[in-house]
Amino acid sequence: MNAAIALIISFPAVLLISLLFEGIDRKLHARMQKRIGPPVIQPFYDLIKLFNKGRVIPLTASVRVFEIMPMIAAAVSLLGASILLSGILFGLSMIGDLIVVMYLLAMSSIALMVGGSASGNPYSAIGFSRKMSMMIAYEVPMFIAVISVAFGSTPSLAIDRIIKFQANLGLPLAASRPSMSLAAAAFLLCMPAASSAIPFDIPEAKTEIIYGLLVEYCGPYLALAKIAKAASNFALTLLASIVFLYIPSLLWENAPLNSGISLSLCLTTALLIMFTTMTVPRTILARLKIGQALKFYWMVPLTLSLSSIILSAAGL
Amino acid sequence: MFRIVSRGRIKSPWIFHLNTGSCNGCDIEIVAAFTPRYDLERFGCLLVGSPRHADVLLVTGPVTRQMLPRLIRVYEQIPEPKVVVAVGTCASSGSPFLGSEMVEGPVDRIIPVDTYIVGCPPRPEAIASGIITAVMSKFR
Amino acid sequence: MVVERNVEKEVEVEYARLRIPFGPVHPALKEPVSLRVSVRGEEVIDVDMVLGHVHRGIEALAEGRNLIQTLYLIERICGICSHSHTTCFIQALEEIGGIAPSERALYLRTLIFEMERIHSHLLLLGVMAYEIGFDTLFMFIWHVREKILDLFEKITGNRIHHAMNTIGGVRWNLTPQIASEINSCMKEMEKAVKYVRDIFTDGTVEKRICGLGVLDYSEALKLCVVGPTARGSGVDIDVRRDHPYAAYNDLKGNFSVITRRDGDVHARIEVRVLEIFESINIIRAILEKLPEGPIRPEENVLRLMRRIPEGEAVSLVEAPRGELFYFVKTDGKGGLRRLKVRTPTFSNLIGLKSMLLGCEIADIPVIVASIDPCLSCTNRVTIVDQRSGESKVVSLDALRRVVREK
Asked: Exposed end of chain C (fewer CB within 10 Å): N or C?
């Protein structure tokens, strides 16, 4: 019962923070391009507008799937993010919530994929096939990195255990052992692809396939898709910040889980992670081709995460 | 509640740009309006690639015969509420191509236009001011 | 619903092959052109092109107007190379009328011409960066480009359509103050373009543009491509050197023709970047050598226009995109009997198909942008390049129609 209330409370908080994160990302991106950029609360304006726009459903779409999938995507990624947030806020956790969060985030991508491809647009079809390849490329190293973390900490799949482990250790997990640093590196390298930021925004390339999967979505559906993306980006950054880089553990022994300071420290770390893994790459890099992206992901992050799991099995 | 909605609409006009046979001058100036010196994005404008995402339709050029059906289709694809802005003298009045067999325009003969931005081509500042005027008057 | 079921069946039959409409309304294209691209997976296996979306009937309009009206009409053929069009037209008129513009006028024409080349090439480089998803570079290049536009505005009073040329000369003079401003701007420009050149040889950008859209030397000769597209394939042509016009005869020693042999997108980009340096050199030489004198005849331009006899002339200039050709036939009463324009993009578009075959979907916008298509130039005549005899694919047209008309 407690858990349900905590989740319900953290839902709006997640929405608020993830949209703010997106606004900060856009502002920083613009500032790095010598522009003034949109106001930080721009995503809120966008959402208000989109929810009040008319709906157009293409004739070629299979209507139910097309309509329902953005809702599922938004709900699932919000849920994923709020599990994480309520984990820090109220110290709630359950067995295996690390896997649940990862599953929910993958689920939201898949829901958008299915919904987009249900529109019947050829660009969506290409976007679907590209997103599929990209997911295969980044989800595998990401999951291996997470598994390596689960082995490397207590071993546990519960997030609060991992946090406590770091607090007792007095070190963020990424700095504790070479295997964990490798896992953190693999996870962080997968972030731009998971968030479809520019070097890996291949499934949504504007100049190539007109946003791919999102091309036919309009109004409220687009708003839901945007929420899904913002929330899952936020969840990913938060996950990285509390699992790999739990900064409060540096400050005091046995850092309390749910104090305001540790929460704000976690959010700041998440913001920094977002800045380095999404905003900066999307400012300084050009978009890759799908083959190059696949090659990169199979070469670097996969090797990193595999060697991390081998090292952690060897006890390093 | 209504005020929040109208504020959201005013603050986030997403732009779809359709070239219906212009000479490129206006199109360049529209893109230039998004570059650092003018930076339309600070008003929340985004240049989107699909008419389904758009609120504002920027039409340049005196509608040529081949682009006429496309103009109508793109106009219909934009979900309500929408604003149409005719950019440049060609789109506003058709000159200097008025009288050509292949020109069906100006734009307001085909779809309702909310704001006209004249100039050949209009400066990026004029385009920015035109877009803001259009959304302010329509969504207020 | 019946239609849709049919479509599904057809997709099953042609499972491996998907036709995607690339344009006429597409965010990668600022202008409408319709490429119908057949793909298998990500690979392009066929390209079909439909032009004519920007056909405004300019040549027909020109025949009903007098020469001065036509001058301002043909300036609106293209917003990027407007000065090339008017220069070419005016040269033909001056040849028919036997009017010799003063030296200073010719130099000023050349000055605007080269500034326009810088502006056009920078524009293309920016668009190129935008196509490969490098927004920051796009913003940077267009920010640099604004400086050139400022100079245009100071000299002629307009950013895009300069309206510089008039019969027998140019309309605006250059004050020493503006000349020094141009000089200082060129210094900044050189620095900025060097930076841009470094970025275009950077790893992430190179990955997207090297070895793409190859048009080899013999193919380029066969298809008669012009301008930087030809020079990127090793064809050494440049109207400025081969048939000097305006002040280029005096400036021959101040520039060289850049060629690259690779024939890929990177070569074409490199040619353009290096041409900007050549243009900067030319502008510096012009400012140094600029002779004194009147810039236009004393006589009223309308009287001049009426004095132009019946006759015909051919004129060539090197526009930023390549060789621009005008055939002008006057009727002796201040009007035109026939105007024929052949723009560089028209020649270059033909090379597009052999560049596109075998590339990936992600490369289409990059390759199309690499020839710097200026379709508003090209579409004065409707060209429908429909390949027949592809009955297998034509059946899938239904799919495309349904998809586009939803």
From this structure: N
